[in-house]
Every structure is written in C-alpha cells, then in structure tokens.
C-alpha cells in the first residue's frame, strides 16, 4: 500500500495519531512560521497543522497528494479566515511556474515524500531568486546512539503505519540546493528547523 493510500485512509484521524507529539511540535511550528513572508507555498499541508501559526495577511497556496487530508485543511483555513488556495498535487511535480513564490514551507514532509531530491529541486524551481525555503523536518540524529535506540525502532513502526522515514538527512539535502541561513536542532537532532535562501 502506498503512502497516499495510507494517509487517505487516515484522513481526519491523522491528528489523533499525531496529537500526542504536537505538544512538542507546536512551539517549533510557531518558530518556523516566523520566517515566512509574501506569497507562500506550503508543500504537504496535510490536515493543516501549520495554518494557525501563519500571519493573517499572507497569500497562501497549499498542496497535498491526499485529497482527504486537503479537505480537512481547507475547512480549517476557512475557519481561521486565511486567504488560502488548495491543490491536489505531488511535491515532486509542482504545477506552478518558475519563481512563483516568496516562501516555500515544508513541515514533516521529506520523511514521507517518495523522491526527496526531486521534491527539493521542485521547491528550488518555484521559489523566486532571493526567496526562502523553510523546513521543519524529522532528520537523522548526529548521535549514533539516538539513531539506534530510538529512531531505528520508530522508523520501523512509522514506516509500516504511514510510510514515514525518520532517518533521512534532509538538513544535508537542503544545503545542496540552498544557502542555509538558519538551522536549529531539537530533541537530539531528530527534529530540525532549516531555513535556506535561493541564490541568484
């Protein structure tokens, strides 16, 4: 079963699974949202857990590969009064022209997207020169003990449940495409905020 099928079956129930972790992630979502400005694309919006943290005056475009989750996010955005448009779309194939956005946001997406390098290329392409890419992602820790004792068992569980790969080195992939201006490591490096600038 593909990640799309697994997430489509979860739908609104996804927040019940993710809910216990959100008390750890909420402050990080708020921090990540502080880096956004202008015309924004959120890649992999899911059920819209980032939406409450965005400034009210932004123009937001949000995509997700799973229609069932996108509908939940769209309803949430209306309740929050956000100027937002939603699209069923893959991160690896963004249907926007080059340089369309001032900021691209990705939160806990690169642990799931099937082809992370292709998705990163697409984010780089649709971002305007000088624009920002903001990532809040699960990443492999710099501590081997944490990886073996915590992340490896979690990787097996989440991989089976929602196709989540907790051992990816997304922070290094960001550095291959963007000039990293800010990076924060949390919980032993298993979660990071990375902010990159598109040069040119």
Automatic annotation (TrEMBL):
Boundaries of every Methyltransferase type domain copy: 41-135
CDD domains given in the database record: AdoMet_MTases
InterPro entries: Methyltransf_11, SAM-dependent_MTases_sf, Thiol_S-MT, UbiE/COQ5_MeTrFase_CS
GO molecular function, one term: S-adenosylmethionine-dependent methyltransferase activity
SUPFAM superfamilies reported in the protein's UniProt record: S-adenosyl-L-methionine-dependent methyltransferases
Keywords, in A-Z order: Methyltransferase, S-adenosyl-L-methionine, Transferase, Ubiquinone
Record has Transferase as a keyword: yes
Name the record gives this protein: Ubiquinone biosynthesis protein
Originating organism: Thermococcus thioreducens
GO annotation (BP), single: methylation
The UniProt record lists the keyword Ligase: no
Source species, domain of life: Archaea
